[in-house]
Predict the structure.
Amino acid sequence: MSDGQNQKFVRRLFHCFMLAALVHVIITGQVLADGCFVWDRGADLNEPSQKAIIRWDGTREVLLLQVRYEGPAEDFAWIVPLPSKPEVTAVDADKSPFAEISRYTQERVRWGRAFRESGRDSERTEVTVLDRKVAGVYDIAVLSSGDAGALSGWLNKNGFAFPASRADVLEHYTKKKWVYAAMRIDRKSLGKDEISKLRTGELQPIRFSFPATEMVYPLRISSVNAGKTEILLYVLADAPMVVKNDHKKEGFSIDHNLVELREFQDHEYGTYRKIMKGELPLTRKALGIPADTRLSLCKYKDEYDAREMTDDLVFEHFEPLPYLIKRANMHRFYREILAGIYGEILVKNAVKYLIMLAKDEDPDVRSFLACNPNTPADILIMLAEDEYWYVRTCLAGNPNSPADILKKLTNDHVPYVRKSVADNPNTSADILIMLARDENSEVRRSVAGNPNSPPDILIMLAKDEYSYVRFFVAGNPNTPADILIMLAKDENSDVRISVACNPNTPADILIMLPKDENSDVRISVADNPNSPADILIMLAKDEDSDVRRPVADNPNTPADILIMLAKDEYSYVRWSVARNPKTPADILIMLAKDEDSGVRSSVAGNPNSPADILIMLLAKDEYRGVRWSAAGNPKTPADILKKLTNDHDPEVRKKAFSNLKKRGVKPYATE
């Protein structure tokens, strides 16, 4: 091999080896991360040459890697150092999570490549093959060795050519007693699709799972490369993770994960909210994470040149209190987060800072503090004298505000403050009695809707001149029956609707409303789960189809009435009969032949529908919505579901597969 060819080979192998280093990135993973992610920062910046997704649960690391390469696939090899023996599997390229997580974070950059120096084991000089397997398109050898020279020799002898001039790189990891995953393309395993993808320079993702106690990104070794390197790191864990020792790169600063809008905040840390149940399904599946596990996604990215790669990246838990206190004088944004987000444990260690925040010159900072349910009572007392009305409003609505503060705020000259006291679910009855006589109708309305308002207050407010005050009285669960009788005759239809909707309204009061002139009142009675059968019988004959529809939905409706409504001229009334869990089987059989596809779809989804209906009619229906409902019905026989996995509509197939999976039945298709 000529010098030029040798240099080209060394560069290519180092390109791959750097990726291997990335594996180590997480290997040591002490990941305690929260939900930090970037929203709406624009399109992906460029296609990364190396990508990784990392999951650490405190004891085990799962690392997904994907790489783009240049050159013939047969020349491509990875040497991946790991701190312990991994389980290595390939990820189905069609189910790769990288595109999903890239879209989720709305940006993408090139992975960096790195390694970390380590110690030496002089006792072991041999190479032990811990595992040898083919996974996906890869021929993989998992190796252990205490001698870099022996390891280099094994690699060259077994087709994983490694340049002798760079044995010092292996020495870094043999000193730390790490193992190695050596990978190359297994040409025998390549199908036509894989060969096509290899021509594009993109390899099948690979998954490593191994025990790990901390997280380190081995950046230092990348200083060997000339030019700049972009590093992209996705980390999934249960709390935010940051680089230790005030790392200077802006892209690796926690600042980029703090958000100002509270609806996107994780209120414990001020970072982006945690990944919710059901989000990132491909990523969860690839990493083996249950769908109901709440996770944090941290994404760090930046560009390094060789001079900046002086050490590895070591990660630690994000401690919000010292971070925010340190930056509190820089910008009010940090003081707002500090005032509004710290947890109970932090409060115990930050009293002097809370006093400082209670006196902050910015009213928004004081407002955050006044709203925080963890703010101690003595700090809240200080805020009760605040000159800014919004601070007092926040204080009045704080569920932990002491009773004496709430009592004092009932005399506040700003109606919004008094209304906030009236809305507070912890406001005592004696304070609500005072506010029930407030001159402002909005304050009285809030008292009328407060579940702590005693009956004597509600009796008084039931006669209020403003209908919306009476409306809230009519819907309050504490309103006495004799008051509901009076309000059932109220001149305002909205008040009567509220009586009809109240789940605590007795049947003898509901019976006053089926003949109400306002159809919305009658609809509300038909919807009420307390409506007895005789009322529903009356409403089933209502001239307004919008009234008959909720009768058909109500589980209290007698079977003979459902039979009558199953023949209603309006299809959406028949829909409701078809989905009612109390509808008799013979009625469902009749509706399974209904001319309206929506009715048949409702029958197909009803868990009480007889199996023969689902088999003979609905699973073969010409309308996809009917077949989709049948595919999701828990009573649909498994053999029918297997046939539906061959349906020409992808949504029907998906639903059938999901139903089979829930039952623990292998979701394969049959003829």
The two ends are 58 Å apart (CA to CA). The first strand starts at residue 50 and ends at 56. The CA atoms of residues 449 and 472 lie 5 Å apart. DSSP finds 33 helices and 13 strands in the chain.
